[in-house]
Amino acid sequence: MNIISWLEGLRVRYILSRHPIEHALWKAVVNKAGLLHDLSSVEKAHLRELATLFLHQKAITGVRGLEVTDEMAVAIAAQAVLPVLKLGLEYYTGWVEVIVYPGAFRVSHEASDPNGLVSSEAHDLSGESWLRGPVILSWEDVAHDLEGLHPGHNVVIHEFAHKLDMLNGRANGMPPLHPNMEIEQWTQALSTAFDILQQNVAHQYPTRINAYAATNPAEYFAVISEYFFTAPDILSQHCPDVYLQLTQFYRQDPLRRRGPKNMSAQPAP
Ligand SMILES: [Zn+2]
What we know:
The chain is of the alpha/beta class. Helix content is about 50%, strand content about 10%. The structure holds zinc ion.
């Protein structure tokens, strides 16, 4: 171990021992967040450590008059670190800010057509992730996800999945895979499922995976990550190859964790 990682280890232990998330607050958030109910007590303890460090590393800032309470910050942190529970917080390095709007926020992005005509389109968003920049969330949407488990929907998981995707420099639906994973298998599984979804959406056939996933490969990865953590039964049933690839990337198996109880009975919107 070199001196820098030794010092970093000391710093981490200091934060965890001196500034842990207060027990009652942590318990209140975990009890509320349906997303976290299936975790074992060991996993919850590890999640609490990661959430504690996350709160030290990131600035969670309310805008448009929103005051971010400790409970709100912990609720965001606890869900944000679930995707990296088995990967580590270093997967979230290179940026520091989480900006929270009271509700959906309007953004306008400029796009130019092949003739050079620049147009500006405005959209209402519940979340947004910037390359090497902030994660932006609508508290109204985060709070809605906290109220119960909505199969296929979790704005925090969605935006932080984008962050993982962007780790190799752009959002293209492929985060940096682990050495034991095959790029070909990943591409085959995800692009086949993505193409089928796109065709079904184009023909206006009903789809079990939210049609928004057909927007582009980056949105596909973010949306299937939402299913992976909130509705693993739906994802594994409809896209088993995709589910398998995500178990390898996230190093988690939410379906096994869930067990036979609480299978989502509702179709995803
Ligand atoms: Zn997205």
